[in-house]
Write a structure and sequence with these properties.
The chain is of the alpha+beta class and 133 residues long. The protein has helices at residues 3-7, 14-23, 40-55, 72-76, 125-132, and strands at residues 61-64, 94-98, 101-111, 114-122. Strands 1-2-3-4 form a four-stranded antiparallel beta sheet. The radius of gyration is 30 Å and the shape is elongated.
Length: 133
């Protein structure tokens, strides 16, 4: 016999309290017909709280300058001063990715001696949703 079986009948035990809670009728709902839990205003407020929660999720943003393919042998030969040729042309738009999914295109700018990206095209929300599939 398990130790929890011995505690079932004992008042004040965690198992007895759980049994009482699960079997006790809800005082607010006793004798009332089923009612919606919240009206539209409360539901909208709940949705905004949920949206606020989503806005705090961190994303990894990557700006892709270009790509190339190399043989392992060629990669092992790379050294300081080596140049890797990329598939994108100079002046061509850069891809801006959020969690490895495209969200925009842009061009390189310099801001306070740091590189930045000026967005030239933002991918529509519909295209972004389709890209998730």
């Amino acid at each position: 016999m398990a130790a929890t079986d011995n505690m079932k009948g004992q008042p004040g035990s965690p198992i007895a309290e759980m049994e009482e809670t699960s079997q006790a009728p809800d005082a607010d709902k006793a004798g009332k017909p089923d009612e919606p839990a919240a009206d539209n205003h409360t539901a909208a407020a709940g949705a905004s709280v949920n949206m606020e929660f989503l806005l705090d999720i961190p994303l990894e943003v990557t700006v892709e300058l270009g790509r190339t393919k190399m043989l392992i042998n060629d990669m092992l030969k790379l050294g300081q001063g080596s140049v890797i040729e990329l598939t994108k042309l100079a002046g061509e738009s850069l891809e801006i990715l959020a969690n490895q999914k495209p969200i925009a295109r842009g061009e390189v700018v310099v801001v306070n001696e740091k590189y930045g990206v000026r967005l030239t095209e933002v991918i529509s929300p519909m295209e972004r949703v389709e890209g998730l599939r």
